[in-house]
Design brief:
Shape: globular
Largest sheet: 6 strands, mixed
Order of helices and strands: HEEEEHEEEHEHHEHE
Distance between the termini: 28 Å
Structural class: alpha/beta
Number of helices: 6
Strand content: 25-35%
Low-confidence stretches: 156-195, 201-213
Strand order of the largest sheet: 6-7-5-4-9-10
Radius of gyration: 21 Å
Length: 284
């Protein structure tokens, strides 16, 4: 029994390592890059072309696996449709080792440098259940408070200025000068004013307030007139053709289980007519 359990654990860990490697390869070999300009407006750069991202009415909720970095489902949606919702929510459902989480403590939200894009974490205990109707109402209330706070906020002083945190670095990214609020220490790009989507982390800097106070806040009441759309990732794994017999045997079970897994969004029992699946395949 110990041999079987150890072999299963080793095979699963190997499969997860192969999947992480595939994720890194997909990110590094991506032909199109998503950027936001200094006003937080999205656009797509593919080669020498700059493609405008059209605006779709309503709220789009993207289910993500982590609350760091730009999630693959959002990237693929933008590249395929070249469009984004008026309000985009990157939702991370986090099951915590606790029986119950009070409804007032379930949602954590934050703004991003991209206009109209927000990160939301839904924390649930292992004994909690929540319907999509209750979730949507709580989400709208949370977004309303967040938008109102960002609109009414005044630029902080140097002592109060927080930092932009780059998940790939141990040190936070700070604005280089209080007189130049739009100058971030960002990865090099062809345009000095571009903000790569891959560093789209929580932001409460002076630059953020400077950018967004120049633009009118989204009209949440008008936006919510259209039903919320949920976009989920349906990635299909397959084994590389050049894999040898041993590697193929180890990964066969892992790939089969991964491809059959249900998304965490099923916990909300969202109606099928609200769901949009973005499918793509990855070789492991």
């Amino acid at each position: 029994m110990a041999v079987i359990l150890s072999s299963t654990l080793l095979a699963w860990n190997y499969g997860e390592e192969c999947q992480l490697e595939a994720d890194r390869d997909e990110s590094s070999l991506s032909r199109a890059r998503l950027f936001g300009d200094t006003n937080g407006t999205l656009f797509i750069r593919e080669g020498d072309k700059h493609l405008d991202v059209k605006i779709i009415r309503g709220i789009g909720i993207f289910l993500v696996e982590t609350d760091l970095n730009s999630p693959p489902v959002f990237d693929h949606f933008l590249r395929k449709f070249e469009a984004s919702h008026e309000i985009t929510v990157l939702l991370h459902i986090n099951r915590i080792p606790k029986y119950h989480v009070a409804p007032s403590n379930r949602l954590r939200s934050s703004a991003t440098p991209i206009r109209g894009v927000y990160r939301v974490t839904l924390c649930l205990g292992y004994g909690d259940t929540i319907s999509w109707v209750a979730f949507e109402q709580s989400l709208i209330d949370e977004l309303e408070m967040l938008i109102s706070k960002n609109t009414a906020a005044t630029p902080p002083t140097d002592a109060e200025t927080d930092c932009d945190l780059d998940p790939h670095q141990s040190q936070p990214l700070k604005s280089s000068s209080p007189r130049s609020p739009l100058s971030f220490q960002l990865p090099r790009s062809t345009s000095s004013g571009d903000i790569p989507l891959s560093i789209m982390s929580t932001i409460h800097t002076q630059a953020d307030h400077h950018q967004h106070e120049q633009l009118a806040p989204p009209d949440l009441k008008a936006i919510t007139q259209k039903p919320i759309t949920y976009i989920i990732c349906r990635d299909k794994l397959f084994i590389k053709e050049e894999s040898n017999f041993v590697r193929r045997a180890i990964l066969t079970v892992f790939v089969a289980v991964r491809n059959q897994q249900r998304t965490k969004l099923s916990q909300l029992e969202v109606p099928a007519d609200r769901l949009v699946e973005i499918g793509f395949s990855r070789a492991v």
